[in-house]
Amino acid sequence: MKTEVFSKHSQDDTWQEVLRLIAGMIEPKFVIDIIEYLIGKSCVTEISINGINKKVILLKENLIKNIFLSAKIISEVRNRSVISETSDWVFKEIQKLTKDESIEAKTRVQGVLAISSTWQDNPEALLFLKDLALSTTSSYVSEEAVMALARSSKENSGALSHLKTLAQSGNQVAIVQLAQVGSDDPSTLKILQTLAQSGNQTAMTKLITVGSDNPSSLPILKTILRSNVNDNIKYVAIGALMRYWKDDPEILSIMKQLACSGDKVAIEELALNWQHDVDTLSILKTLAHSGNIRAAIELLLLNKLDDRTLDFLKKTINSDRVIEELKGNINIQALQELMLHNKKDMIFIQSDLRQIRLKRRGIEIETGYFSTLRTKITNPECLKASLHSLGIAVKTDAEVRGSNGQTVRSDIVGVLEGNYDVGWSVNSDGNFNLIVDLWGLAKKYNQTEFINSINHKYAAMIQGYKRFLG
Question: Residue 27 class from Cβ within 10 Å (0-12 exposed, 13-18 middle, 19+ buried)?
Fold first, then answer.
């Protein structure tokens, strides 16, 4: 069997699984013979040259392939104790090639995988993986060693212990993996908190993800806001604070202090979540008047621009510095159009910007709310005729549907396909206000195009109506 089956097909990838199955079906003592043949005796082989048999050395890669095949074979043996010496021998051979820097990283990674899958319960193997993870000779190999420990840590406390040690040493991959596989372990939270306090930004991010709701993390989250860290970390920290600790009065105080110092994240946050606070408008105007573009834009989006800030924005909005700074935060083209006094799309820009910012903070937008928008519509009959001509069913004195079953009563309702409607209710000036859940509307329609189509149709109806009246 060893010569006609294993030796003949050991280099054929399509036979690997077949050879493993065979190994699991035969007696362990025969497995020992096969492995010794594959690794020991198969280091040399006989070939016929002109009818004369000669021994030649196998190519190194073929020998390595046989070593990995041997590891797979060992994993199929039910009673491993019978082949313990052979198993240890193969294990040591794989250790050697995994540490061998002259071998390409891809092959060494195969060694890591072989060890973690065949000897996952062996303390010596776990210790070897930890030492390999600390090695700086190949980040590819060391990262795979960390991943191997993480995969084993769910079932093996020894692997989890090594993973914790690596994380505590500052290993970035280990920190990420520990947060994923050890999130239910109380000591994991403590490790992440300690690392975050020491300034480790990977630990900060993971602490925000898995431990923000723990009261012991609250002081650390506040410290992160004050720290000189990546803005993205601040954004997700704020998202966590708003989810779990919004009523903590110190958070607003921290935001104000940071905003006054020019912190762009804090400036955005004041405008987004504390726009009605008595100090917010004053802080934003002071900053804008001193040349802070972020504060100026927040005033624009809050409809609180004064002439001085408006002039400042007009002069700077097209500059390369401003465009680069705002990239990824807002639709700059829409903002530039807005500067040309095209304010009809303001509510849509505000809605889109709010969603972008909340998502960046890790807050998934799963619901909307009703917005009330002023319009120039005054004639209810022309409005209803406009809706009918656009194929929109009309109800009067009915409910407008919004997110999560919310409804609001309106004088005229345009019934849309799905779960959302649009409504109009007359105000004290005699004009109709548009009532709509913009988030819900955007799930099926382009907000601006949809509402503009109604307004345009209404304007055409009014012109025709006036001509009819003569």
Answer: exposed
